[in-house]
Design brief:
single chain, mainly alpha, ATPase_inhibitor_mt, ATPase inhibitor activity, coiled coil, mitochondrion
């Protein structure tokens, strides 16, 4: 009988693979830099200009809405004045030329 030495190969120690990962950092205000709050201290010139344009558009719309409301109020006041004059005329016809103001004065 022959003696045989039983051996088996040991697993080789493989170096752990490490990947160097570095992030690309940009300075504040550079084109392509991470955006901060729009219009704030951060952000590049493009985002600041875009924010300013949005603000101008919002103000323009609000101004249009305000002008429309003022026109609506003026129209309502004109209609109210017209209705009061018509009521005065009807009252004069019904009560023989006695105006509403004279009737109000009698009640005091």
């Amino acid at each position: 009988m022959s003696l045989r030495l039983a051996t088996r190969a040991l697993p080789r120690a493989q170096p752990a693979r490490t990947f160097a990962t570095t992030t690309y950092r940009m300075a504040a205000g550079d084109t392509g830099s991470p955006r901060s709050a729009a219009g704030g201290a951060g952000g590049d010139a493009f985002s600041k200009r875009e924010h300013a344009n949005e603000e101008m558009e919002i103000r323009r719309r609000e101004k249009e809405k305000l002008e429309a409301l003022k026109k609506k109020i003026a129209d309502s006041e004109a209609q109210l004045s017209k209705d009061r004059a018509e009521a005065e005329e009807l009252h004069k016809k019904q009560y023989n030329d006695v105006s509403l103001d004279q009737v109000r004065d009698v009640g005091k």
